[in-house]
Amino acid sequence: MTTPSQELTFRGGSSEDAAALQRLQSEHETEQGWTVQQWQKELNRSNGSVWLVESVDTNQPVGYLVMWRVADRLEIVDLLVHSRWRRRSVGRALIEMAAAIGRAQQVCRLVLEVRRDNAGARQFYEAVGFEEQGEKPGFYDDGAHALVMARTVETACD
Ligand SMILES: CC(C)(COP(=O)(O)OP(=O)(O)OC[C@H]1O[C@@H](n2cnc3c(N)ncnc32)[C@H](O)[C@@H]1OP(=O)(O)O)[C@@H](O)C(=O)NCCC(=O)NCCS
Predict the structure, then answer these.
(1) Lowest-pLDDT range, 1-10, 24-33, 42-51, 131-140?
(2) CATH architecture of the region 8-152
(3) Looking at ligand 1, which residue's alpha carbon is closest to its atom 22?
(4) Which of 5, 22, 52, 141 is least surrounded, with the fewest CB atoms within 10 Å of its CB?
């Protein structure tokens, strides 16, 4: 496994990051992404957090993770790595960071929904320790099915 480059830093996001995150998302997602206002809401959410991976050279985000605390779990709401930085363990580092936060908060598991037709993301989540838990038919606006995947954080939970 390669490790993310030292040209990158990881940090928590704030309101000032909304425009750059909106741009990164809109350049890489085929689906409708969030507006700057929606990003601001995420960046200020009391039960959630946004984490950025930033290029030291450009001070621009090259990846992000959005998660919410819901009951005994952390939900991965969105995760994205800039196409030029993929397959360099950036996504893995973000998931390991989420697991470390989860352990510190004593949550039981990380959970997420992923499009069934997003083969690359499904293989990524399997590679970083997630297992399929079920399916949500027609979950997305275009009728695509979602797979629910989870990774245990605290083995003391059932
Ligand atoms: C999914 C995503 C976040 C992965 O980020 P990444 O930084 O490229 O992932 P990593 O380099 O940490 O990959 C870790 C392992 O996952 C697997 N993996 C990652 N991307 C994969 C792909 N496209 N196809 C197959 N396996 C993949 C590999 O086993 C990889 O290890 P390896 O490179 O040593 O073989 C990135 O491809 C992305 O942003 N995709 C578009 C947005 C998206 O679909 N997000 C998920 C929304 S739920």
Answers:
(1) 1-10
(2) 3-Layer(aba) Sandwich (3.40)
(3) 120
(4) 141
